[in-house]
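Budget justification aside, the reviewers requested a transparent look at the raw inputs and outputs of the sequence design task funded under Objective 1. We therefore reproduce one unedited record. The lines immediately below are the structure tokens for a 308-residue chain.
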């Protein structure tokens, strides 16, 4: 495998920007190899702790399955019953777990930058993985999304990718923009009603026209409407949104005939995407879920192999 910034420079996986294009391709290819070969690297007795301060199904379970298939011990840290309820700070939780031999801490938290802060105060043997920090980043999701795209498309840089929906609140969209910038994807279109467009897009062109945004698209990524993150200026008429932006088999007619339809999940069926599209021939949504295990396995392997 090619020389890698991930191997040489960092002990943690916190954002896409820390990677080089070579890192990304090596990790994507490794995850695809693990999936095809059904080969599980072995890290018996190494310990992974899932610390999810926000709810999760896909990310938490796929980290657990990836680690268990590699023979690791998995702790699903129960925050509500932990000593944080008695006032302990999260950095002391991390240090306490690290003192008991945790090797990998997978952290999801509402505070932006919190996994980075934990990585800074972590002892040297501990690897921190960002499983989503506020609205800032969700780098392992962007990795598994590009793994899925690479399974269908021979080249990534020539693609037209459209991300549709609640971009302003989407950490997935931020990490996808960073990924497109890193890999020099030619056409990235960010599609949303004005109030939901990002104030400072990382990369890509913005439009409020769904038709303009997804015409000739190779990949359409629908985002969840994240009601829980709305502030007063983010409220729009949701029925109007569904009429204008919901991904349907009709709206997809202007995309490429072999368009891939993706969604990071969880899905609001009928809100941002029609149920028949979720289950239709263009949908790669369940493949994304499956790939989450293999991509996270490749990431854990890389961190443990390089720094053990
Ligand atoms: N895509 C994603 O992060 O899903 P979960 O919230 O279920 O982990």
């Amino acid at each position: 495998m090619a020389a890698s910034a991930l191997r040489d420079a960092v002990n943690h996986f916190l954002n896409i920007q820390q990677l080089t294009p070579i890192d990304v391709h090596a990790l994507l290819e490794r995850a695809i190899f693990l999936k095809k070969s059904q080969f599980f690297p072995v890290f018996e007795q190494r310990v992974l702790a899932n610390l999810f301060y926000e709810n999760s199904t896909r990310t938490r379970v796929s980290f657990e399955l990836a680690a268990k298939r590699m023979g690791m011990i998995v702790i699903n840290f129960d925050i509500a019953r932990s000593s944080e309820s008695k006032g302990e700070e999260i950095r002391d939780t991390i240090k306490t777990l690290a003192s008991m031999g945790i090797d990998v801490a997978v952290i999801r938290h509402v505070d932006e930058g919190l996994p980075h802060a934990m990585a800074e105060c972590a002892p040297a043997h501990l690897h921190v993985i960002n499983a989503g920090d506020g609205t800032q980043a969700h780098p392992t999701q962007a990795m598994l999304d590009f793994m899925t795209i690479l399974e269908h498309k021979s080249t990534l840089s020539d693609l037209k990718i459209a991300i549709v929906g609640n971009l302003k609140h989407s950490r997935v969209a931020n990490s996808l923009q960073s990924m497109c910038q890193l890999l020099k994807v030619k056409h990235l279109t960010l599609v949303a009603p004005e109030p939901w467009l990002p104030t400072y897009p990382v990369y890509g062109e913005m439009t409020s026209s769904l038709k303009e945004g997804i015409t000739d698209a190779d990949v359409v990524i629908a985002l969840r409407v994240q009601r829980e993150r709305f502030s007063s200026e983010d409220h729009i008429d949701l029925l109007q949104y569904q009429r204008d932006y919901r991904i349907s088999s009709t709206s997809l007619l202007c995309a490429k005939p072999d368009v891939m339809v993706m969604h990071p999940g969880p899905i609001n069926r009928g809100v941002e995407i029609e149920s028949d599209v979720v289950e239709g021939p263009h949908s790669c949504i369940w493949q994304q879920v499956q790939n989450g295990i293999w991509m996270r396995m490749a990431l854990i392997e890389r961190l443990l192999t390089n720094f053990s």
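The beta strands are 47-52, 73-76, 104-109, 127-133, 160-164, 187-191, 205-207, 219-222, 260-262. Confidence is low (pLDDT under 50) at residues 1-5. Computational costs for records of this kind are itemized in the attached budget.
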